[in-house]
Amino acid sequence: MIISDKASAIYKLILVLIAVFLCSIGIVVRAQAQTANTGRKITLVIGTSVGGGYDLYGRLASRHLGRVMNGNPTLIATNMPGAGQLIMTNWLYNVAPRDGSTIGLVPSTTAFESLFGNTQANFDARRFGWIGSLNGHTAVAISWHASPVKTANDLFKDAIIGGGAPSSDVTIWPRLLNSVLGTRIKLVAGYVGTSQIALAMESGEVHGLIGSDWDGIKISKPDWVASKRIHVLMQLRDKRSADLPDVPTILEFTKTEEERILVQLFIDRLAYGRPLATPPGVPVHVLEEFRVAFKMMIADADFRKDAEALGATIESKPGNDILALVNRVYATDPKVLDRATQELRAASQ
């Protein structure tokens, strides 16, 4: 078919008008999205008290995540400490609004509490909207330089260790070491957060702390590390960290294959140290917005500079990796899970 020049010109004009119309729709949609997000406030809830490692990492994220999101919403960090972070995690899962206005910093250890039989943990970790983790988790056992506890072997003698709430890592790990490895730790529980245990170490009330994250210690107590005021006794992970090549891992003290498998499961509980999550039921597009922004934040030069100034190690993992770990732990052999549940239940009483 032959098209006349006049018809061709009209045809081209129509195409141009359609293109302009579609472009204008796109501009309006983007403008509406920008307007919708402008002035928006997002609360980032942290389940520990002010000043600890989780708090510092959470506030680091709060300073940068909104800056890379559409509309530059303001992120407000707030603390909801208590019960080894269970109060915050229960609130995030059951009470927090599901519209993208609230996210939380949910440690992987806390996320598995319901799986391991903690009746106070009213959530299913598989249903959180996992955004991404800021770093891995190298839990350690440390002692004050002036205490008689100098090496991991001293934990098999008499060591007085500070602990927190029954379900907190710093309470559970010492009890697990006693039960599984046969250490002779005397636990003094009930401190509110690692900040209080740190003061107890400095005053000589306790010899040390077990289960706190090494990166968090470096951030919250840089003077301890720089002036060698602490001994790092043991790493509660399966491989020695590049940052602590001379410190033995907990697996190096296991004596049987059963102990090794059991300890490995406990290690898997804290593989991702500081993951951010939305409540369950948040719209898919909102979760994806957070995930994209998290990836952008991790690559952002200002974020990296801020993290470096804090001494914060950033070893990020995307939300899908966190969900895969959660699903893998939930699929653990029931016999192993039952033994682990019994050990954790005893350790948290």
Structural notes for this entry:
By secondary structure, the chain is an alpha/beta fold. It folds into 2 domains: 40-137 and 270-347, D-Maltodextrin-Binding Protein, domain 2; 139-268, D-Maltodextrin-Binding Protein, domain 2. The chain has 13 helices and 11 strands. It has helices spanning 5-37, 53-64, 86-94, 108-111, 169-181, 193-203, 214-220, 222-226, 257-268, 284-299, 301-310, 319-330, 334-347, and strands spanning 41-46, 74-79, 102-105, 129-133, 139-144, 159-162, 185-188, 208-213, 230-235, 275-278, 317-318. Helix 2 packs across helix 7 (214-220), helix 2 packs antiparallel against helix 11 and helix 5 (169-181) packs across helix 13. The longest helix is centred in the first third of the chain and has 33 residues, at 5-37. The radius of gyration is 25 Å and the shape is globular.
How is the secondary structure organized here?
Elements: H1 5-37, E1 41-46, H2 53-64, E2 74-79, H3 86-94, E3 102-105, H4 108-111, E4 129-133, E5 139-144, E6 159-162, H5 169-181, E7 185-188, H6 193-203, E8 208-213, H7 214-220, H8 222-226, E9 230-235, H9 257-268, E10 275-278, H10 284-299, H11 301-310, E11 317-318, H12 319-330, H13 334-347
Parallel strand pairs: 1-2, 1-3, 6-7, 6-8
Antiparallel strand pairs: 3-10, 4-10, 4-11, 5-8, 5-9
